[in-house]
Amino acid sequence: MNTPPQPILRPLTAEVLLHAYTIGLFPMARSRHDLRLYWVDPQRRGIIPLDAFHVSRSLMKVLKKEPFDIRCDTAFADVMRGCAQRASTWINGDIMGLYENLFHREHAHSVEAWRGGHLVGGLYGVAIGAAFFGESMFSRETNSSKVALCHLVARLRGADYRLLDTQFLTPHLAHFGAVEISRSAYLHRLTEALAYQARPFCAAVPVPVSELLWHSSSQRS
Fold first, then answer.
1. In terms of Cα–Cα distance, which of 67, 55, 64, 53 is closest to 144?
2. Per-residue pLDDT tens over the stretch 119-129
3. pLDDT for 43-85, tens place per residue?
4. How buried is residue 29: exposed, middle or buried, by Cβ count under 10 Å (0-12/13-18/19+)?
5. Partner of 120 for a Cys bridge, out of 86, 141, 179, 220, CB 3.0 to 4.6 A?
6. Partners of 164 in the beta sheet?
């Protein structure tokens, strides 16, 4: 059973937010109109093992066609706005401001899918040590967020990250190899990842997406 979200009663600064991630907490609002924020501490945690990332055959075909221009950290605020435009969202104005602050401190990053000069999908998350905490993704064109996720994993592997935290396990993420682990197992992996310093997220050379495809294919054989 998950612990009920706890209201955040003190001013939430970038320093407090970064510390919270290191002990397994993250903030959410109940809706875009809710002025309150809550600490979330799931008893079961979703992660994508970076050495067991799965790419479906249909997505392989999409990746090989390179339908999108993939960029990193060129439109962070726009990616957040895209993620917040769902009918139901936990991203309110305070969340937007907090993570834009982390972006300017180089602790938050976006992977963006562009086509024809337009942002059509992407994702964002928080980076500390060798851990990346995926926050949200959005898609305005078919497969755009999926392709962005593949490029995220390629970049994380190229920069020697050890943990990709998805917060929760969803059927969509399970298709990519996401699994659910206990809170204690998660904290153990988190501690190990925080003991390392990955290379700079956007400066690091990602592993070729073709390597992800080969790795995914070899796991099936």
1. 67
2. 999 999 999 99
3. 999 999 999 999 999 999 999 999 999 999 999 999 999 999 9
4. buried
5. 141
6. 132
Distant-in-sequence, close-in-space partners of 97: CB < 8 Å, separation ≥ 6: none
Q: Is 179 helix (H, G, I), strand (E, B) or coil?
A: strand
Question: Are 24 and 190 a contacting pair, CB within 8 Å?
Answer: yes
How would you classify the pairing of strands 163-167 and 131-139? parallel
Beta-bridge partners for 112:
71, 122
DSSP states of 6-29: EE--S---HHHHHHHHHTT-EEE-
Report the distance separating Cα 91 and Cα 81, nearest Å. 9
CA separation for the pair 11, 18 (Å, rounded): 14
Q: Which residue type is seen at 162?
A: R
Angle at 37 between CA 184 and CA 20, to 5 degrees: 35
Residues 6+ apart with CB under 8 A from 104: none
The alpha carbon of residue 137 and the mean position of all alpha carbons in its chain are separated, in whole angstroms, by: 8
Handedness of CA 63, 201, 11, 47 (dihedral sign): positive
Report CA-CA distances (Å) from 30 to 39, 91, 94, 171. 11, 8, 12, 22
H helix intervals, 85-220: 93-104, 144-158, 171-174, 183-194, 209-220
Q: Does 221 have pLDDT greater than 50?
A: no
**What is the number of other CB atoms lying within 10 angstroms of the CB of residue 5?**
18
Question: Domain coordinates of the chain in residue numbers?
Answer: 43-85+108-220
